[in-house]
Write a structure and sequence with these properties.
284 residues, alpha/beta, Rossmann fold, 13 helices, 9 strands
């Protein structure tokens, strides 16, 4: 029962395999990923929304030829959303069939069990990357359950017994830090803070993702995004917005006034009004 660290020989190898699938990781992130796989510990990625935390897990799954299983956390998430549930509709049909003379079936057998992401990750036979996205949106009770799950990689189902991981997944947790996570969960994980990329690295990301983009477009968009991130805005543009902005200029004229396309990069009216009023992109 092991993660897929055997395929990764070191941080440089992580940089290489992620680059092959279009994700440009720096040395610090690559080191964290390698250690998470090698030490068989979950990796907790924190950072502002849009810096590429979720994309790390997607890229890892692609690089390792692994199945990506994603658990999107939200307020009120519980075991029925995260682990398993019962197919009550099919159970009801089985009861009615038995009342009509059909052979009775065990209502809490495997055939009526619905896999949710955590159980699916435990039972998948091949290599798996388990993404637990935005754990900071879940409540304290679910966080406590998750701590136990990550310690044992096993789940107890009262009607069926304990299910243990067939092959331990590589686990990536993400947090936008809307609240502080408990120390117990943090101690269970390796930690990495993911920041916005430098202008140079972001330009490299755009080149990798949009090789058809002229260099002038790449430089113009990345410089504009760098200027926006220096402003006091409600929501700073992420890497995803940078890529879409570059694509927008490809669809239009690359000399288009950037202020005419601010809705691509900024998603709050007050932010757009502020940028227009200050003229920060007037010469961009």
């Amino acid at each position: 029962m092991s993660m897929d660290g055997g395929r990764l020989t070191g941080p440089d190898d992580v940089v290489r395999v992620l680059s092959d699938v279009g994700y440009l990781a720096d040395r610090a992130l690559a080191t964290s990923v390698f250690l998470a796989a090698h030490l068989e510990q979950p990796l907790l990625l924190e950072g502002e929304a849009g810096v590429g935390k979720t994309e790390v897990a997607r890229a890892l799954a692609g690089a390792l030829d692994a199945r990506l299983i994603r658990l999107q956390c939200h307020e009120g998430i519980d075991l029925h959303h995260a682990v398993y549930d019962w197919d009550y509709g099919r159970q009801l049909l089985a009861i009615r069939a038995a009342e009509s003379g059909a052979e009775a079936r065990e209502l809490y057998g495997r055939e009526f069990l619905l896999q949710r992401p955590l159980l699916e990750a435990l039972e998948h036979d091949g290599p798996t990357v388990l993404l637990i996205d935005e754990i900071d949106r879940a409540d304290d009770e679910f966080e406590a359950f998750l701590l136990e799950f990550l310690s044992d990689f096993a789940i107890s189902i009262p009607e069926l017994g304990t299910v243990t991981a067939r092959r331990r997944p590589l686990v990536v947790l993400t947090s936008n830090r809307t609240r502080e996570l408990h120390d117990a969960l943090k101690r269970r994980c390796l930690y990495h803070w993911l920041d916005y990329p430098t202008q140079e690295r972001e330009a490299a990301i755009v080149r990798a993702r949009l090789p058809e983009a002229p260099e002038a477009v790449v430089q113009r968009v990345c410089a504009a995004v760098s200027l926006l991130r220096g402003e006091e805005l409600y929501k700073l543009p992420g890497v995803g917005e940078t890529l879409v902005w570059a694509r927008a200029l490809l669809a239009l004229d690359e000399d288009t006034d950037l202020q005419e396309t601010l809705g691509v990069a900024l998603k709050v009216r007050e932010d757009i009004d502020r940028v227009v009023a200050t003229g920060v992109l007037a010469d961009a």
